[in-house]
Amino acid sequence: MTFSWKIEKSDIQKIKNVVSENDNQFLKSRIERNVEKKNISISKDNVIHSMIMCLLTSQQRSGPNSQVAKFLNQKPFSITAELIERTENKEKSIKQIFLKNGLTRFINKNSEYFSINFDEIKKNDWEIMKKLEFLNENQSKTNERELADFLKVKLKGFGPKQSRNFLQALGLTKYEIPIDSRIINWLNDFGFPVKLSSALLSENNYYHFVSDGIQELCEKADIYPCVFDAVVFSSFDDDEYTAENIML
């Protein structure tokens, strides 16, 4: 059984309109990073930063002026590979850093998941770096999805959304995007051919189905899904993004 996407000219125009209406700094940064591939750096520290970002933003407010955003935008960032590798009790150390920065929501779970994930990455001798480098050099819809699905299985606390959030934050994806309730609500208002539910996004096949629809729509509108994600995401934050408060 197959599903056929039928996209009208009016659908394409709606997509183009939302892009033009949200031409903000967040969108500009997304295009520079994920489309034009500027300043891409695949390092242990950046992997750690993206992993922390995914855990912290999973179930709490992370808008441009939130406590989470302020923490993630620290320069230099307080959690580094060197720090973690010489820390005897990783979970306790991360928890203390979170507490110091007022990040108490799900603090026990996030600290535990980070420690488990770091140990898994270290145990595999940072094999993840090779996979990230491969995707950076061989970008395609298929390769993006395969790596996102791999990370979903390998990283504790990561579902389909955060595995894609992780890759997108590193600047490695254009097609696979983190789909959440914002995207689902927008698509339902837009007139997606079936009524969508954010509660079902944890199921891989359902996530793929929604992602396929977004990719098809964006292809017809001649934009990348990562651009669509940026304009929809930022449209909920009243143009609060500046060059200084964008989480990368």
Automatic annotation (TrEMBL):
Gene3D superfamilies: Helix-hairpin-Helix base-excision DNA repair enzymes (C-terminal), Hypothetical protein, domain 2. Keywords: DNA damage, DNA repair, Glycosidase, Hydrolase. One of its GO terms (biological process) is DNA repair. GO terms for molecular function: DNA-(apurinic or apyrimidinic site) endonuclease activity; hydrolase activity, hydrolyzing N-glycosyl compounds. The keyword Hydrolase applies. This is Uncharacterized protein.
